[in-house]
Design goal:
636 residues; mainly beta; Immunoglobulin-like; six-stranded mixed beta sheet; five-stranded antiparallel beta sheet; 6% helix
Length: 636
C-alpha cells in the first residue's frame, strides 16, 4: 500500500512530512521500529514515535501521523520532523523533549517526548492513550518514563494525565506507587516501565503486564506485575505480581495445571510478548522474551489466559522449559513451531517461541500473529515471517502463510494490488493495526526487503482475512408511490390512479393494499389486489367509487300544501254552497302565496352542496414491512 520495497544505502527510508496537518498522497512516515499505533472510532490509523538507528546516531522519534484508509493519504499531525541531538552515553542521541503543560489540561503546544517501547491503547471515546517507554522527559533527559498521555483526535491536542515529567537519569525511572492490591486510587501509578505488554478490554479498561522497569523502591528489575487502568476517572490499580520485583531476579512463573485457572497462577518475568482480547473479554498472552521454569532466558512459546472477572491466570499451551544448545544456557533458548499443514487448523499446532511479533484481532474475534524474532519450524533461531490465526472458540492455531524457515525476503507484487503470492519479508518490532472493516495493516520494523537485505524499511501492507465478517447487506424492502397526489370526482362517479411498488435490495414478496380515511358513501378497490415485484417495479390501479348525493336544496313551498289542506276542509258536498265565499277567499290567498314563493325562488336560486374533501391513506404491506402514501380526494 506504500513505502519502499528496498532499503537505500543507509538501510532505512526518510519520511516525507509535507505540511503539518495537511493530508497529501506524497506524505509518508520514515523508517522506525517499536512505534505506537492506534485505530480511532472513524477508522483512521495513527502512528507515533519509535526508534531509528542511523549509523551511530540514535533517533527517539515523537512524530504523530494519521492515515485515512479511504483516501490512502498520510497526514503529519504533531511532533518533530527534525529532533535535536546530544551525546548520551557516548552516542549521538536525538530526541524531542516532552512539553507537558499543566496536568489534566489539553493544549495545542503539548506533546510527548521522543520514545520507544511504550504502551498504547484506544478508549471507548476514540481517544488515544500513551504510557511510558524509553525516551526523553521534559528536560531532555533520556530514561525510563512513566508518564501517561491522552490524545483527542477531534481537537488534535495532547493532555498529560499522570506520572512524572522527569527521570532520575539515563536508563533510570521513577518508583511506582502500588497502593493496595486490587484497589483503584488517583495516587497509584506504575514506576518507569518499557517493553511491557498491553490489552484494552471490552469494559474500556487498559491492562499492563511485565516489561522492564522500576519497582516500589525505584530499583530496576523485571516485573511480572499486572496493572489495570480506567480512564474515567483516570486511576490505576495494582492487580497482581510483586511490588518489589528487583529483590528477586527473575520473577518465577507459577504454572499450575494446564488449562485450569487458579488464584496462585502467574506468568513470570517477560517482555515484548503478544496480546489479544477475546470476544468473552478474557486477556491472552503469547510468548515474549523471558525465563522458563529452570531460569533459562530465551524466547517463550507459553500461551496464557487471564480472566478479569475472577483475577485468575490459566496456562493454556506451550512449554514450561526451553531447549538450549550446549553452552547457551541463560542465553537464546527456545522451542520451534509446530506448523502442521498450511491452512489446516489443529489443536496441536503452535507458533514457535518468539518476541516482537505483530498482532491483530479480526472482525470475527480471531487472533492473528506475524513474524518476530524467534524459533522456526526447525527450531533454529531466525527472523520470522510466518502468519498464524488462532480461533479462541475452538482453541486451535492455523498456519496461514509465510515460511516455516524464517529469514525470508519480501514478495511485494504490484503496489496496491492484492495477490496470494505477496508476503512481507521476515521482520520484528513493526507497527500493526486492525481497521474497522477487519483488514490487518503492517508498517516497517526491522525487516528483510525484496532483495533479502535486512534493515529498517518503511513498507506498508494490508491483509484481508478470508474469514473477515463483512457488514450485513441492507434488508430487502420496497417503496410505494402514487401516480397522483390529488384527484377530483363528481358525486356518484369513480376515479382512478396508479400505484407503483419499487423493490429494494432484492425484494420479491407479495404486497397487498388497503385504504383508510374515505368519506361516507365512498369505497376503494385495487387491481390487481396484490403485486409481487421481481427485479423491476410492479404496479396496481387504485379506483375510488362514490355514491349519488343531493346537490342542491330548493326554496320552501309550505304555503301551497297549507292552502290545499284548507280547500279539502271546505270542499265537502254538504257545505260547499255555504263555504263558497270562504273558498274563494282562500283561493286568492293561495294564489298570492304561490306567486310569492315563485318570486322567492327566482330571487334566491338553489345553492349546491359544498365539495367534500378527504385525505385518504393508501397502505402497502408485505409481512412486517408497511409503507403508506396519502391522496387528497375531492367529491363534488
Amino acid at each position: 500500500m506504500g513505502g519502499s520495497n528496498t532499503l537505500g544505502a543507509t538501510g532505512y527510508q526518510t519520511g516525507v512530512f509535507g505540511t503539518l496537518g495537511v493530508a497529501s498522497p506524497t506524505n509518508f512516515p520514515g523508517s522506525r521500529i517499536w512505534p505506537q499505533t492506534w485505530t480511532d472510532t472513524n477508522g483512521n490509523l495513527w502512528l507515533f514515535g519509535g526508534f531509528l538507528a542511523a549509523g551511530n546516531t540514535l533517533y527517539y522519534l515523537n512524530d504523530l501521523w494519521k492515515y485515512d484508509p479511504k483516501t490512502n493519504e498520510w497526514t503529519w499531525m504533531s511532533g518533530s520532523n527534525a529532533p535535536p541531538c546530544a551525546i548520551v552515553e557516548g552516542n549521538p542521541s536525538c530526541g524531542q523533549a516532552g512539553v507537558y503543560g499543566a496536568p489534566g489540561t489539553a493544549a495545542a503546544g503539548n506533546t510527548p517526548g521522543g520514545r520507544e517501547y511504550a504502551a498504547s491503547w484506544t478508549d471507548a471515546n476514540g481517544h488515544l492513550w500513551l504510557f511510558g517507554g524509553n525516551g526523553f522527559d521534559s528536560s531532555g533527559n533520556l530514561g525510563v518514563l512513566n508518564d501517561l498521555w491522552e490524545f483527542d483526535p477531534s481537537t488534535n491536542q495532547w493532555t498529560w494525565q499522570g506520572g512524572g515529567n522527569t527521570v532520575p537519569g539515563s536508563g533510570y525511572g521513577l518508583a511506582g506507587v502500588f497502593g493496595t492490591e486490587g484497589v483503584f486510587s488517583s495516587s497509584n501509578h506504575p514506576g518507569g516501565l518499557m517493553l511491557d505488554v498491553v490489552w484494552h478490554d471490552h469494559n474500556d479498561h487498559a491492562w499492563l503486564f511485565g516489561g522492564w522497569g522500576d519497582d516500589a523502591t525505584g530499583t530496576n528489575g523485571l516485573p511480572n506485575n499486572l496493572w489495570q487502568f480506567e480512564s474515567s476517572p483516570a486511576e490505576w490499580a495494582w492487580m497482581d505480581g510483586s511490588s518489589n520485583f528487583s529483590a528477586v531476579w527473575p520473577q518465577p512463573t507459577v504454572y499450575g495445571a494446564m488449562g485450569t485457572p487458579a488464584a496462585g497462577n502467574l506468568p513470570g518475568s517477560r517482555w515484548e510478548g503478544t496480546t489479544w482480547t477475546g470476544p468473552d473479554n478474557k486477556l491472552w498472552l503469547f510468548g515474549g522474551q523471558g525465563y522458563d521454569s529452570k531460569g533459562n532466558s530465551g524466547y517463550l512459546n507459553e500461551f496464557w489466559q487471564y480472566d478479569p472477572s475472577t483475577n485468575e491466570w490459566a496456562w493454556m499451551a506451550g512449554n514450561s522449559t526451553m531447549n538450549c544448545a550446549p553452552g547457551s544456557e541463560n542465553q537464546n533458548c527456545g522451542i520451534g513451531g509446530a506448523y502442521g499443514t498450511l491452512g489446516v487448523p489443529s489443536a496441536v499446532n503452535l507458533p514457535g517461541g518468539r518476541t516482537d511479533a505483530s498482532q491483530w484481532t479480526d472482525a470475527d474475534g480471531n487472533f492473528w500473529l506475524f513474524g518476530g524474532y524467534g524459533y522456526n519450524g526447525n527450531s533454529i533461531y531466525s527472523v520470522l515471517n510466518d502468519l498464524w490465526k488462532f480461533d479462541p472458540q475452538k482453541a486451535e492455531w492455523t498456519w496461514i502463510g509465510g515460511s516455516s524457515l524464517g529469514d525470508q525476503g519480501g514478495t511485494y507484487g504490484t503496489l496496491g494490488i492484492p495477490s496470494s503470492a505477496n508476503m512481507p519479508g521476515s521482520r520484528h518490532a513493526a507497527a500493526s493495526w486492525t481497521d474497522l472493516d477487519g483488514n490487518l495493516w503492517l508498517f516497517g520494523g526491522n525487516a528483510l526487503d525484496a532483495n533479502g537485505t535486512i534493515g529498517e524499511p518503511n513498507d506498508f501492507w494490508r491483509y484481508t482475512p478470508a474469514t473477515t465478517t463483512t457488514p450485513p447487506p441492507p434488508p430487502a424492502d420496497f417503496t410505494l408511490a402514487l401516480g397522483a397526489q390529488a384527484v377530483t370526482v363528481k358525486s356518484g362517479q369513480s376515479t382512478s390512479t396508479t400505484l407503483t411498488i419499487t423493490p429494494q435490495n432484492s425484494f420479491s414478496s407479495a404486497v397487498s393494499f388497503t385504504c383508510s380515511g374515505l368519506p361516507a358513501g365512498a369505497a376503494c378497490s385495487f387491481s390487481p389486489a396484490t403485486v409481487t415485484p421481481s427485479g423491476s417495479p410492479g404496479s396496481a390501479t387504485l379506483t375510488v367509487s362514490t355514491s349519488a348525493t343531493t346537490k342542491s336544496r330548493p326554496g320552501s313551498l309550505l304555503p301551497i300544501p297549507a292552502a290545499a289542506l284548507a280547500l279539502l276542509l271546505f270542499c265537502t258536498r254538504r257545505k260547499l254552497r255555504l263555504r263558497l265565499p270562504i273558498l274563494l277567499v282562500l283561493t286568492v290567498v293561495a294564489l298570492s302565496t304561490l306567486t310569492a314563493c315563485a318570486s322567492y325562488t327566482l330571487a334566491n336560486p338553489v345553492q349546491p352542496i359544498q365539495p367534500v374533501v378527504s385525505t385518504v391513506t393508501v397502505t402497502a404491506q408485505s409481512g412486517s414491512l408497511i409503507h403508506s402514501a396519502t391522496l387528497t380526494l375531492t367529491i363534488e
